[in-house]
Amino acid sequence: MSNNYVDLGSEVREQEQFDVEAVDTWLKTIRPDLVGLPQVTQFPGGASNWTYRLAYQNADLILRRAPAGTKAKSAHNMRREHDLQKALKPAFPAVPAMIGYCEDTQLIGSDFYVMERIEGIIPRKNLPRGLELSKADTRALCTNMLDQLVALHQVDIDATGLSALGKGEGYVERQVKGWSERYKKAKTWNVPSAKGLMRWLSENMPEQENLCLTHNDFRFDNLVLNAENPTEILAILDWELATIGDPLVELGNLLAYWVQADDDRIARSTRRQPTHLEGMFTRAEVIKYYCEKTGHTDVDMTFYEAFGLFRLSVIAQQIYFRYHHKQTRNPAFKNFWFLVHYLQWRAKRVIKNGNQRARRS
Q1: For 286-326, what is each residue's pLDDT tens digit?
Q2: Domains in the chain: ranges and CATH
Q3: Most exposed: 102, 277, 311, 353, by fewest CB within 10 Å?
Q4: Residue 25 and residue 19: Cα distance in Å, rounded?
Q5: Containing H/E element for 116?
């Protein structure tokens, strides 16, 4: 059944084509065994890095490059993304194998890297048509996902040489300050000031932080599932935001995207991954499972959940800012200002519930 559910990419968008022969010539200096010219397709998206499939007669590869007009020192750092995965692969198998990095921006207009393609299902808002998981299978998929997150957070960052990715202590403080500044810069007249929420986050940062490798965009739609056994996770993709951070901040960010089947109508309208399926964990169950697996006892997740929702509201506002100032005309972004109100309301409700629990205990 596998091929029915696997995304093979689509025709390359006209403005995002590249010199296939030039890439092929460069690739064959690394992999002289490659046969013929590759058939090239492009995967959906494009707001972040552009991703292409290079289908050779005897190999299936992926090319990743930054969007046109961006620079490597920004978030679209191809060398960093390549080197991180290469260093991580021996300690964390759920990472594609790297083929090579090309720093010559003259070749296709950007530096880029090539890695092996791992064929499978990427679970987006809904599973592919015709693919149905039982309640038990859904639960297994959920636990397998969280097990991967636990395993990632337990990678020895010193032994892998990845400790240099981070800035050390003060990660949580940098996150709160950084996202607060981003919100202030992107604020428009029709969204909250968020002064109270930002002040609460600044005043209630946890006294203790743990540092480990974090993916920073860990969601179902960045997983590759085995098409023959969709509960099995073959790989985790999109490492461009990975850094040395706090694992509970990452858990809070994951929960911000986690829309339950019994959430309100507004939350359900924002769902972008299949967290609504029968058998899927609730957010409370995600916290319980992760904390039991990692030995985080008596953790109060109030700060982390509230920060995750605030961070997501900033992301939504940054997108809306572009629409508001006519930098994009995508009608899907027209009402994101309302989503900002909603996410910050959710964050304040998390804080209120946390305060009530604290008073009862």
Answers
A1: 999 999 999 988 899 999 999 999 999 999 999 999 999 99
A2: 2-116 (3.30.200.20), 135-360 (3.90.1200.10)
A3: 353
A4: 10
A5: strand 112-116
